[in-house]
Amino acid sequence: MINVFQPTLGAEELEAVSEVFAANWLGHGPRTKEFEALFAEHLGVSPDHTIFINAATAGLFLATELLGLGPGDEVVLPSVSFVAAANAVAATGARPVFCDVDPRTLNPTPAHVESALTARTKAVLLLHYGGLPGEVAAIAELCRSRGVPLIEDAACAVASGADGTSCGTFGDLGVWSFDAMKVLVTGDGGMLYVRDAELARKARRLAYHGLDNKATGFAKAKVSDRWWDLEVREFGRRLIGNDLTAAIGTVQLRRLPAFVARRQEISRLYDRLLAGTEGVVLPPALPDGHHSTHYFYWVQMDPAIRDQVAADLLARGIYTTFRYPPLHKVPAYGSGPLDLPGVEAASETTLLLPLHQGLDDSEVRTVADELRKAVEHRLAAAGH
What we know:
Layout: H1 11-23, H2 30-43, E1 50-53, H3 56-66, E2 74-78, H4 83-90, E3 95-99, H5 110-116, E4 121-127, H6 136-146, E5 150-153, E6 161-162, E7 165-166, E8 173-177, E9 190-194, H7 197-206, H8 217-220, H9 243-274, E10 290-291, E11 297-300, H10 303-315, H11 341-349, E12 350-353, H12 361-381
Helix pairs in contact: 1-9, 2-9, 3-4, 9-12, 10-12
């Protein structure tokens, strides 16, 4: 099976894990701090503002908590987004308000966001679809002008940016995912960025039970007569990462530029192989000054054949998918009927092709060849 997503792991990661085993300290420690610092350098921010956590989902939930969201509040987010984003909002008692997206980029425009803002809007939660930055700078400026915090779900955008600024750092809070299907993987894990220094310190406390100092009892014994006493200011949970996964992440971060370069090569190869294919629309070009992680490669086609083409490819050993199904249609969020034509068009026409750095050129050619055959066959059967 040629998979849509697949991590790249090897001897370097195993060696890093073995070093953690040899040190006999698996929990939050020096490897975690090193990974936070290196990731902050990768983003171009201070390490005091980055926190390695056990999942990006945990970061989204923590972000909504840091903003004090609750009943009566509204949060604007694109309907084409991952379920964790809407869950993080709804769990506070606030209401997710879903906005439309551009049907080609699957990212919202400033106009889409602005049309969903109300007097009750307490935050905007933006996704960078497939690693495309989108119009994030303009949306961030819109949020600042309205006094509304911006949360960036940069799960797809670990190496994306626009005009010298990394995705995830345009707004007030940013979250990245390192789960097993991402580009940089730690198995499970994520990173949280908090722009405000005091809020970043609060985030660290909340990510470790609300404790003011998460130093070990042994370390505190050197500076305190009663090192077992607790300092709890808020009611937190345990969301922190650990040295075992951080060691993997540190190696993966070092390899990230090569991963992204290979993904870009694959995307360009798809562009060449599929150019001019009847019934297949290729992804939009990146604007000048933007760079992408190339997390997704998607094509679009007549909705009458999209699902059939996906089934044909699966039968030929090629796994494709669509992400993310429209959230405004999920009954649990209670959004009711909404007129979101861009979301509707994108969700009915878009198909993600395999894209990961482990693909070789022959596999890419196989995908492209089988896609062309499937589209041609289904168009003919439909009388097009």
